[in-house]
Input
Amino acid sequence: MTYHLQDKPVREKPTILLVTSGHPLYREYLLKSVAQHADVWLFHDVEPGWEKPYLVGNTVISSQDTAGMVRAARSLPAGVHISGVLCWNETRVIQAAELAQALKMPGTAPENVMRCRDKHLTRQALAAHGVPQPASVLAGSVEEALETARRIGYPVIVKPRDMGGSFGVSLAHDAEELASAVAHAAAPRKEYPERDPGVLIEEYAAGPEISIDAAWMQGKMFPLYLARKLTGFYPHFEEVGHVVDARDPLLEDPGFLGILEKAHQAVGFQTGITHTELRLTSSGPKIIEINARLGGDMIPYVGWVASGISPGQVAVEVACGFVPTVCSTRKEIAAIRFLYPEHDAVVGQVRIDTSALPASVDTAAALASPGQKLILPPAEHIYCRYGYVVVHAQTTEACEAALIQAERAFTLETVAD
Output
């Protein structure tokens, strides 16, 4: 491992130890936000690049090596005093929890974080505490999956037990579709190299799908952003957009919040930030999954645009063991839409006519670079997006109109493969 201490003025800020950084197109806003409220020391597998302006220093070390990270944290240069550990990488939340525990930093016990990371363990914990959720069975083979689906009743959801962001999730209406869905869920993914065996066969919970990011301090909940999902590429569940209303009534709904609290008590999550997904069914909200990290797809950024609640400030405060500052300075609606090609393609260029963007656009950016292959779901996932737009307005209808207009400002030029 190597150390690099950058020249920075001394500031009265806590120092956060960040475990990996993520993709800049999706996480730079978050690192920038955190750096406004804390000095950041990065533990990452490779030398930082885009991250450097936001760091006071870094250590190049395997993020899978918890013992090595503990030793590295205890031997940081003089004057670097860590106040908290932070991680928003789904594949490293366990290692980050182990690191925080070893350093006696605020957080949730690793075994309880594992109950969020492993969706089968989540289901077992929720069932033991009577939390509303779809019926779920872990299947180790296609034969077990077929028997389970017969008992639950079609259609069923088939999903991996250890992925995030709707990777490998699909809906099966019969035995033939089920066999294909099991193969899809069990397929190796470069983003998730360490896989647990088996796939989950679950009851299909019909109804709108939502997510809520919430901060937790010693079991007390602080709701942040509630997003209404837009999915596509049926029968898969690619998340193609999200809408966040800072005035969403569910943020103050006792029944909804009660289910959320009971679910976190069931898995034992105490301190940190979670991204929980639910379905609003005819019989009430049902928990789909609990992720022990801030939401992806830039949902916290969209939430900040809508509410003014800073994801970086809240993340730093919770990581340091402080009651988070959750105070809305705005009460708007914000939405994000991701742009996909009509078919598999190789990018020549992504052009944005900024003069054609409506005034309500907050951000419009390209996600693909020249030469990049865009392969649509289910073969690939979020990496087939070529752009995104974030808008804000006073109504969902105004947001939708702005998104449609903004999409017309994008031009995807393709080249022959």
